[in-house]
Write a structure and sequence with these properties.
With about 90 residues, the protein is mainly α. It has a domain of about 60 residues. Helix content is about 70%, strand content about 0%. It is built from five helices and no strands. Helix 1 packs across helix 4 and helix 3 packs across helix 4. The longest helix has 18 residues. It starts with a helix and ends in a 6-residue tail after the last helix.
């Protein structure tokens, strides 16, 4: 139930920010910036991971964010392997 409320809040915030570009400027972003995890989390005052997981559940996460997440996972798996570096 809680995740349904979170998802609906994130969905509404994303739609609001997409239809009100002036709000992006108030958050220090250009009107042309894509509405994603960073912008929504700042707008709602929530942690990034909560917004990101919600966008993933909703199927609303953009390809750039998916790429960043995959790169993070790849780097973490390299770090965790013996002889993997850092």
């Amino acid at each position: 139930m809680i995740s349904a409320v979170i998802d609906e809040t994130v969905r509404a915030a994303k739609k609001f920010l997409e239809t009100h570009p002036e709000e992006k400027e108030k958050l220090g972003q250009a009107k042309s910036v894509t509405v994603g995890t960073d912008l929504i989390s700042r707008f709602l005052g929530w942690k990034r991971f909560k917004v990101r997981y919600s966008l993933e559940r909703l199927g609303m996460i953009d390809e750039e964010e998916k790429g960043r997440k995959m790169e993070d996972l790849r780097l973490n798996s390299v770090r965790c392997k013996p002889g993997g570096g850092v």
